[in-house]
Structure formats: structure tokens, C-alpha cells
# Entry
Amino acid sequence: MIKTVGVATLGSSLGACSPAWRRFSPGPAASNLPLVRVAPDRVIRTTVGLRPFRPAGFRVAVERLDEKTVIHNYGHGGAGISLSWGTGLLASELAEPHPSRQAAVIGAGAVGLATARQLQRRGFDVTIHARALPPDTTSNMAYAGFSPLSNLVSAPERTPAFDAQFDRAVRASYEQMQLLAGAGRGVSWMTTYSWTNRLAGRRAEDSGLDETESGLDPDVDVGATLLQPGEHPFPGTYALRRPTLRIEPSIYLDRLMEEFLLFGGRVRIRDFETPRDLMSLDEPLIANCTGLGSHALFGDETMTPIKGQLTFLAPQPEIDYSLEGSVPGGGRIGVLPRSDGIALGHVMERGDWSLEPLEEEITTRLDRAGRLFAAMADHPSGLGAVAAAPRSPAMRDALEGDPVPAAPPPVESFYDIES
# Structure
């Protein structure tokens, strides 16, 4: 359920809780940050995808369908890539008691591929059946920071059983993503900056959370380095710096598919309109990883799309940090550099099934990004720099030359990051 449009088609329309902040000496951490060059003629594409939101959170459960056993694994909201290895683990554990070792996985996005790999690790012979493969899946359209709570669950719908599943899933996924980082698989550590005007209580104006993300964040020290006024170029009184995980879908999903095939997996291109269509499969065990497709295929009417849209600027190799926060004049922006472009987010249109790009949102993202980087360049601290640097001091200071932090931050550090 994705759609990609080139810039040529756009025409003239481009015109929580109180954390215990850590205080370290910032050194050169936020000095001379190279700035993103924001202009309409630097837009290279816009992508649209529909997040598969389910108010009760993701569903991992077993259902009998005549002689078939169906294991559901869908409804991850904006946290599908982040939680895919963990919910894939839960699904594979439900599959293990089945007497057959033949399994079908429906769907080839991040959740489907991770579930297929988890089944293979437990000795299953797996075939993926999907109507779309990377690079044409919804997962390919993701912003894809590690964001396990992004549009995941509505607080009134939460249950202790869901919380227990979530805890296992997020920690299993976090461990797996750490193992993939730095191995050419599209997963890497980078430095993320956010900013705030206060340090006590919930950071309502800067947290980026909504009602679908509340309630799961414990009172923990998130491990962010606190930068005082004058030590950073961002439009807030204080800034926070922390190492975060970045996933590049175009690389990550292709590597997962390659590994799946390497371990004997097979792929079939096909679509399913009703559960009865599944009866034609040879495999007695079926993992349903169709995401939003479960609304029609299995009649889950609680499934709701949350439309997302990313505007990509031409890559700048010198930009090796990401940003999350409010901008001068109002509004929020997420900026994530990747090898395939600099992603500007986040658009969240609840209940919108359309895959047509919202041209006004392209203009909005460019306007917000422009205001942010103009403010950084003009900041009284003088710590913003238009000149490019081969490698920013922020990355050297945060990671000390090592692509993997010596002591990875706790998984709770990622709970307020948007997908």
C-alpha cells in the first residue's frame, strides 16, 4: 500500500515522564554542525505509506481456519520495523508446537521478512506469498528510526497481556538490531539531537507523543547528554544528544530478502482476497503478516490507516546527525539523513486511505526545515556551520570513532522517537 512520486510531477506546488537528565561536558559535541541545504529544487522524491494502526496494539495470536493454523502478526502502527524481530519471535514460538515444518508467510514487508527468518531459525521450510516485494512494500516508505512506541497502541485499549508481549518484543528486536548494526545491512548508530525549554515534567511541547504512544514509558533515565544554553545551535533552551538506531529500508529489506533466499526460502507473487483463498496453500501453517491488509482479508475492522509522507532532499554525506523537535514559528520536523536522501517527516493523517501525496505537506516540510536550519545558522551560540565537514564533531564525540557505542543506551531511550 505505497506510492512513490517523482519531483517532476509536483510542479510549482513546491514553492512522559520526568527523566533524570545526565550532564556531561559537551566539549565540541554540537559545534560546527554542517547544515542541510533546504530548497525546492533539492527535492528528489516524495513517498507515501499507510501505517497499520490498531488501537489495541499489535496482534500476535493463533487462529484455526479449517485444517490450517493461522498465526496473526499485524497491527504495529508506526513501529513495524522496530518491533518486527520481536513479534516475529513471538509468532515463531507459537508455531513451534505445530507438527509440520512447512510454513507460509503472507506479506513481504519488514514484519513478514523478520517472521520468515525467525521461522527458518527454528527449522521451518518457509515460502513467502505476497502481492508486493521490496522495494514496493509499505515498509520501504518508512522513516525508520528505531521507534517502538510510535503510533502503537491507544492507552484505553492496553491490557497486561499486551504489555507483557510488548516488553518481550521490543527487547528482542533491540538486541537483534544491535547485532545487525555496522554489518552492511542498513542498520547503523547515529547521533540524534532534540531540544526543550524545560527539564521537569512531561515535555508536552517537544515530545512529539500523542495518545497512541502514551503510557508505556517507565520512569527511567534515558541516557541523554544535556547541553546547556550556548552549547548548541538549536531553537530551545536546552538540547539533548543521544545515540540512536537508524534503519535504511532500501538496504535493510533487500538484505533480509537475500538472507531469506540464502537459507532456502521461496517467494510466490500472489494476492488473497478472502480467508478461503488461503485454503489453496500447501502449507498447513500460515503466518499472517499483511498489516493493514488484515482489515479486508480477516475482517479486522479495528485496523485504521495513519497516512505518512516523507519528502526527500538530495543526499549530503557530511550530514551524520538527525534532528527531532519544534521549529521557530510553530510546527515539528524530523530530519533523518540516509544514503538515499535526507528524509523530512513526520506526516500523520489518521483514517486517510489515499496514497496520493499531499502537496501542501511537501511545502510545509520544506518551510519547517528551512526555518530550523536558518535558525541554527543564525543562532547566538555560533555553533551552526554552513561549510561541510568530512565528519562532524558530534559523531566523533558521541561514538568516539566506533560505529557501535561501547554501552548501548537502554531500550527505553527510544520510546519517544517518532517513526
User: Anything to note?
Assistant: The radius of gyration is 21 Å. The first helix runs from residue 80 to 95. Helices lie at 80-95, 110-121, 160-180, 249-262, 294-297, 359-377, 393-399. The CA atoms of residues 164 and 170 lie 10 Å apart.
